[in-house]
Amino acid sequence: MGRNMQFVVSKASTANQADGNGVVWCYEVGQDAAIDEREKEDLSPFNIPKIRVFIPPHVNPRITAQQGLFTVHPLKGSEASEPLERQSRSRLSLIKVLIHNDHKPVLRQQLSELGVNAASIFPDLDGLSSHLQWVESVWSYGDGYSG
User: Fold this and answer.
1) Is the pTM here over 0.70, yes or no?
2) 111: which residues sit within 8 A by CB, 6+ positions away?
3) What is the residue-level pLDDT of the chain in tens, covering all 147 positions?
């Protein structure tokens, strides 16, 4: 969850976010929801009858670092257009974690101390530059930096 949390706390609130709060959705995947290696070759994304979870291959450093997974949704039926959090028949158990805007700076500092920051999530020059800019901004405000 730490890597997902970094996405939530890393940006300042925008005009689209009225209160500037962030949200992390956590979900537990049932055994039959995950697409395993045996199924991948025979399964078409266009005829999936229910929501499934796909763990992508590690084809580039960002995918590896972010440890992400994707949900694949059916094109037809009740699950096709219903938001994930409202679906009762899905095998995904969702928990909504609200991150108040005032808590973002402290959480960002704590995540960085644990090694979760722009440099670790985006292991390239962009990620390193973004992290160094953030470190510089923390130092320039006199808050110090420990991560």
Assistant:
1) no
2) 2, 5, 6, 9, 117, 147
3) 555 555 566 654 444 444 588 888 877 777 777 887 777 777 787 878 777 888 887 788 888 888 877 888 777 765 566 676 666 555 457 788 889 999 988 888 898 999 989 999 889 999 899 999 988 888 776 555 555
